[in-house]
Amino acid sequence: MGAKMFGARVARLEDPRLLTGRGSYTDDFHLPGMLEAAFVRSPHSHAKINGIDTAAAKAHPGVVAVYTVADLPEYLRDMTVPFQVPNPAISQPFQQRLLEDREVCFAGEPIALVVADSRYNAEDAATLVEIDFDILPGASDCKSALDDNAPMCHANSSNNEGAKYTVGYGDVSDAFANAHLTHREEYWIHRGGGFAIENRAVVAEYNELQDMLTIWSATQSPFLVKQNVVDMLGWESDKVRVIAPDVGGGFGPKTIYYVEEALIPLVAKELGHPVKWVEDRRENFLATNMERDQYWDMEIAVDAGGKLLGVRGKMTHDSGAYMPWGIISPYISATTLPGPYILPAYELETRVALTNKVAVTPVRGAGRPQAVFAMERLMDRAADKLGIDRVEIRRRNLIPTEQMPYALGLIFRDGKPMTYDSGDYPKCQVEALRIADYEGFRARQETARAEDRHIGLGIANYVEGTGLGPFEGATVRIQPSGRICIYTGGGDSGQGHWTTLAQVAADKFGVGIEDIDVQKGDTGKIASGVGTFASRIAVNAGSSVHLAATEVREKALKVAAYMLEAAEEDLDIVDGRVVVKGADLSVGLAEIARAVQGMPGFSLPGGVEPGLEATHYFSPSQSCYCNGTAVVEVEVDPETGWVDILKYSMAHDSGTLINPFVVDGQVQGAVAQGVGNALLEWMIYDDNANPVSASFAEYLLPSAPETPNVDVVHIESPSPINPLGVKGAGEGGTIPAPAAIMSAIEDALSPWNVVISGAPITPSMIVEKVRAGS
Amino acid sequence: MSDRRTISVTINGEAYEREVETRLTLADFIRHEVLLTGTHVGCEHGVCGACTILLNGRTARSCLMLAVQANGQEIMTVEGIAPNDTELHPLQQAFQDNHGLQCGFCTPGMLTTLIEFLGDNPDPTEREVREAISGNLCRCTGYQGIVAAALDAAKRLKGKETAGA
Ligand code: FES
Ligand code: FES
Question: B8: which of A134, A384, B22, B119 is 20 to 30 A away, CA to CA?
Fold first, then answer.
């Protein structure tokens, strides 16, 4: 029997293909007769359209068709993208139309679609589409957008408030009345994006003979694409197949369904040719959803010993012009704030503002980095005011592990009461501090100061709901060749599902992972699916693979017992063969698979159903809660404002690990995005909401020199609510990063009493603060 | 508008002669005319490095070059790195062993960049590796696995040399 695969630190099966250029991303498809599309998008954040003239574009060489609203089938002209996650708190659930011909509400909103024999010709023709605009003022900053005299995001609205709600529990007024100390502060977190290196892309092909439409999309959620294509275009579900091939990074924005994913299939069917559209990077900056922009006006109440009594405040969330994902991000923010602490009373009022920008939907971390930023900054302030160490105040408030499972008193986005299922928060903090050598830090700091170097240490804790339901399924099938195949619905955009799901199944059959194939993200291969987002695949699909593989194993044993004329209890599966324990008698999984394929006229061995396969759709009872502690040591140059991250330590508890190697990579990559959020990434708009930073020359992603190595220590508190004990691991690294980094910068610059209340912070902002403090 | 020229280039040891539009980028030529889709395009403005190829042994951003500029020259793309269909180059193997890739989209550019770099600097420090790939964006890995892979590959390549010597 081979080594145990579940939990092993093994290299990925995905890699050889991707390392040799044999991946197949959406833009790699070249189908016979394929045409290419380019979009004409609004150059203005807000404008009325008086007229569109496509004559010159249509006459351009190579152009096959130009579509505006008027060229769409009548039933689609006013159709909007289906509203995914309704909520009674939403008062103005604006959704985008397929194309716009009356009023554009963000720069990048599609107005026309040009299809030509090449992308070059399509782009040439796109520039020839003439549009008569009346430019309207735009609502830009989300806080000002809620002012009485703000320009309207949608010209016909009377205000820009898209939603409003309050969450909380406990008696907040009482908490503040009895406080030893309170502190109130405003925080601001910038807008930024996922910025996968592969942009979005769609290829669609209609096969007339089979009356079948196939869509390849660089999406995290092929089933969501299919459902929306079916709903919007009114096509039969079994005539549409959506495949997410290799996807070059997702990070949230590719979860969402976009109008391009309806238009490209529509025109492919109409024109009788496959059509490809690949987003370019500028379009990606304009038309792919982003996240983060929030203002928090928050107040904390503590007793004399630094114990939390209450937190209250108001938050303003920028939703952009439309709300395709409702209020998921701000709702997650609101429910994330209490984190790992015993917080007796909490109240947060959230107002969601409509602004003339591309829509806000979850980006890695999904509303949590903002909430953690607010809470952890408040903890730092309370500690500083009380003269307690920033680490110590946290230690005093962490939920002790004996109190698990811990009911928070809030309702999560899945509609279920928030109950932290497991975790050892005090141990997590201790471990992070241990690998950060916190004990030696103050001495290091003194030595550095003596050399006129300014180092500082910051800490932040978080708890993250992961493994969101309702389900993700898996089919496990042993093929007549003996090879095991797993099918699951979510796409893979770098997470390594082939490897990790194979690890879940391998031990059931005593095989290595190289004997297993995983086919993911194809609606033609499994009946139902949801998608790869919300750190949900290990929990949902992983558990389904476990259940299905267990059933297949039992079936294999049953059939083998019949074939070998042995008792089932005497059988085991070793190296892909069912063996009779202690006897020289065995039958291979391949033979069993062939036996249950059925032979005309013969009954199936053991009276089983045909096929050596099983399908399960694991549905978790609620989310499971991952947690972690980040400890960051930085050196700041007070003259240039440059921040150098010297040491980044992270204790991370995502339950039982399927493959620590892969989880390390997820944490490291997520931290890098958090570093970007803290120090570099900033999507800037002018006062009318026109984007200013729409290329990688202005919007800075972390590159190798400024990205730290991350020391990760894993705490494994198994989740009691799924059969594997796993929790999600893809987003945790991002969540505490801005909070911890700001805390460290403040500590480094404490001689100048620098206070940081927003993210990102740039070198020039730091220099200004140092100057103000000296 | 569609001014066309015939060009001949060698890609991964194979000669190609094609008539192309003069405005066609080298990246699009490689990907969509020659159909070697391993070279990726992530920004088309010279920042991300995903399109990096080796032109006469030196890195070049194929999104910033026209195909006609490559006329008569020798190109190596990611498809040409491995010694054969079943084995990986030591750098590729190091990437797998150090979790140097997740989605794989930046990977071709990372590999070509590092092949040139390790040729020039067979014994680099971590800092030097980080500088060398500072023009290649990876959104997935946080670079840690890539840097570890590069350092590991340097060792493997040196070992190979010593073994071969
Ligand atoms: S595609 Fe060439 S540098 Fe980004
Ligand atoms: S591995 Fe995905 S961008 Fe680098």
Answer: B119
Q: Residue B138: which of A23, A197, A705 has the nearest Cβ? A: A197
CB-based contact A430:A649 (threshold 8 Å): no
Angstrom distances, CA of residue A244 to CA of A33, A532, B62: 22, 11, 26
CB proximity list for A601: less than 8 A, separation 6 or greater: none
B159 and B141, same domain (yes or no): yes
Q: Whose CA is nearest to atom 2 of ligand 2?
A: B103
The CA distance from A22 to A376, in Å, is 45
- Using the predicted structure, report yes or no on whether residue A691 has a pLDDT greater than 70: yes
Residue in B95, B138, B147 nearest the CB of A15: B95
- Closest ligand 1 atom to B47 CA: 3
All residues of chain B having their beta carbon less than 8 Å from the beta carbon of residue A496 are 102
Looking at B26, B58, B80, which one is the last position of a domain? B80
Domain endpoint, select from B48, B80, B112? B80
Q: Torsions phi, psi of A520, nearest 5?
A: -120, 160
> Sorting pLDDT into bands at 50, 70 and 90, what band is A2?
low
| Total domains, chain B | 2
Structural domain including B20 reads 4-80
Q: Is B139 in the pocket of ligand 2 (CB under 6 A)?
A: yes
Nearest chain B residue (CA) to A675: B142
Tell me the two tokens of residue A2.
């081979």
Answer yes or no: are the C-beta atoms of A382 and A304 closer than 8 Å: no
Whether pLDDT at A266 is above 60? yes
> In terms of domains, do B64 and B106 share one?
no
Q: What is the pLDDT of residues A557-581, one digit of tens each?
A: 999 999 999 999 999 999 999 999 9
pLDDT at position B165 is 43
* Residue list, ligand 1 pocket, CB within 6 Å: B 41-44, 46-51, 61, 63
> Using an 8 Å Cβ cutoff, are B146 and A704 in contact?
yes
Q: How much is the mean pLDDT over chain A? A: 94
Chain B residues lying within 8 Å of A195, measured CB to CB: 139
Name every residue whose Cβ is closer than 8 Å to that of residue B51 and which is 6 or more positions away in sequence: B27, B39, B40, B41, B42, B61, B62, B63, B109
CATH number of the domain that B102 lies in?
1.10.150.120
Expressed in angstroms and rounded, the spacing between residue B50 Cα and the centre of ligand 1 is 5
- Is the CB of residue B11 below 6 angstroms from any atom belonging to ligand 2? no
Which residue in the set A24, A198, A662 is minimally distant from B105, CB to CB?
A198
Identify whether the C-beta of residue A664 lies closer than 8 Å to the C-beta of residue A730. no
- Pairwise CA distance, residues A241 & A666, whole Å: 30
Contact A197 B50 (CB under 8 A): yes
CATH fold of A469-618 reads Aldehyde Oxidoreductase; domain 4 (3.30.365)
B141 inside domain: yes
pLDDT tens column, B7-56: 999 999 999 999 999 999 999 999 999 999 999 999 999 999 999 999 99
Architecture field, domain A290-468+621-773:
2-Layer Sandwich (3.30)
Same domain, B39 and B76: yes
CATH of A31-136+196-250+254-287, one of 3.10.350.10, 3.40.30.10, 3.20.20.140, 3.90.1170.50: 3.90.1170.50
Q: Give B49's contacts in chain A (Cβ within 8 Å).
A: none
**Total residues found in chain B within this entry:** 165
Listing DSSP states for A150-181 in one string gives PPPSSTT-S--EEEEEEEEES-HHHHHHT-SE
Closest alpha carbon within chain A to B106: A197
In this complex, do A697 and B47 lie within 8 Å of one another by their Cβ atoms?
Answer: yes
3-state secondary structure of A271: helix
Its ipTM equals 0.97
- pTM strictly above 0.90: yes
CATH 3.30.365.10 in chain A, residue ranges: 290-468+621-773, 469-618
